[in-house]
Design goal:
Helix 7 links the parallel strand 4 and strand 5. Helix 4 runs parallel beside helix 5. The longest helix is centred in the middle third of the chain and has 18 residues. The protein has 16 helices and twelve strands. By secondary structure, it is an alpha/beta fold. The mean pLDDT is 94. The structure holds zinc ion (ZN).
Length: 382
């Protein structure tokens, strides 16, 4: 391949680096990368890979842009809200570097399509935010001998590594053989994330991708980089390949892709989800609030900061974090409807109170999010 005069000018700061040079830039320009997710991590990854002149960039994302994405997902603009993330990403990238071939995969990556999606690419970068997709990406990369550039973020902390058993390192399963029980690890949507954090972790992943393309430097293979933004500290853990690993070990038991939702303990959503007997809808919560004769009390178990952002008039706050100390303020024979933001923490509150002998408890399905969708749009969503 030859670089045009325009490309030589565009990549001049790479070309004068002895570690890159013309040969290295040609390697970057002929490397293909599949980016799984065009969200917080995918944004800086796609932007910097495009600017660096990556040859082909595949983007897997089936989601649409939401207002709550804009705080960190810098691929997308205010005008993109409601549009396809993959499409928005493609346009932003074309504006930065029209030489990059962008391939959109506007689908949910699954056990059925993952191998076909990944096979044509040299490198895979994990910008996902959930465990089933992370294990799926890992296993597919191991089976296809593709380097899997991993990053994850939560609140103020991030981690990054390069999983590549074919280069002698471990895989994600060597590090985390079992997924956490469902609901135990909150997502960024539940726990929050500092907007710049995916920028930092995504840039670390991008650096590793460029080093892989160049064949230069020492990669994060066999090393887990941990970053804490509040302390502004980086730490590093040595990772070893587990000879017993079910996918990259000496006697692998996983030789094809499995059902990752099931592996992660997530029960598939049904077409018409059956109502959990422990749950009520926000409409029932409204009835309880409107009609005191029903004798039902509603409590909110979110944290005070969240209550300040949005709350339902007349519903008292008893944060889940204080419930162990303060549950004696409640009456074990009283009927309570418990709500949080989306229904996860209120279910944990319900289970805790039930262990303390409370008899008449219901979880409000969908929490205050559902309340602002279905009952009162004047209650802001956050
Ligand atoms: Zn492994």
């Amino acid at each position: 391949m030859q670089l045009s005069n325009d490309e030589i000018r565009r990549y001049s700061r790479h070309l004068i680096l002895p570690e890159v040079g013309l040969a290295g830039q040609k390697k970057i320009c002929s490397t293909s990368v599949l980016c799984i997710g065009a969200g917080g991590l995918g944004s800086p990854i796609a932007l910097y890979l495009a600017a660096a002149g990556i040859g082909k960039l595949g983007i897997v994302d089936f989601d649409t842009v939401d207002y709550s994405n804009l705080q960190r997902q810098i691929l997308h603009t205010d005008a993109d809200v409601g549009r396809s993330k993959a499409q928005s990403a493609k346009e932003t990238i074309a504006g930065i570097n029209p030489n990059v071939e962008v391939v959109l995969h506007d689908v949910r990556i699954s056990s059925e399509n993952a191998l076909d999606l990944i096979r044509p690419y040299d490198i895979v970068v994990d910008g996902t935010d959930n465990f089933p997709t992370r294990y799926l990406t890992n296993d597919a990369c191991v089976l296809l001998n593709k380097p899997n550039v991993y990053g994850s973020i939560f609140r103020f902390e991030g981690q990054a590594s390069v999983f590549a058993p074919h280069l002698g390192g471990p895989c994600y399963r060597c590090l985390y053989p079992e997924p956490p029980p469902p609901g135990m690890v909150p997502s960024c949507a539940e726990g929050g994330v500092l907007g710049v954090l995916p920028g930092i972790v995504g840039c670390i992943q991008t650096t590793e991708i460029l080093k892989l393309a160049l064949g230069k430097g020492s990669l994060l293979v066999g090393r887990l980089l941990l970053f804490n933004a509040l302390d502004m500290k980086f730490r590093e853990l040595k990772l070893r390949r587990d000879p017993e690993c079910p996918v990259c070990g000496e006697n692998p038991t996983i030789k094809e892709l499995i059902d990752y939702e099931m592996f992660c303990g997530i029960t598939p959503e049904q077409e018409e989800p059956a109502m959990n007997p422990d749950e009520v809808t926000v409409h029932e919560m409204k009835r309880a609030l409107d009609d005191p004769k029903l004798g039902i009390k509603v409590i909110d178990v979110r944290e005070p900061d969240e209550y300040e952002i949005a709350h339902v008039e007349g519903v008292p706050l008893l944060p889940l974090s204080q419930l162990e100390q303060r549950f004696t303020e409640l009456d074990p024979n009283q009927q309570y409807y418990i709500h949080c933001k989306m229904g996860g923490r209120s279910m944990r509150a319900l289970q805790f109170l039930r262990q303390q002998g409370f008899k008449y408890l219901k979880n409000v399905k969908g929490g205050i999010d559902a309340w602002s969708d279905e009952i009162d749009q004047g209650v802001p969503k956050y």
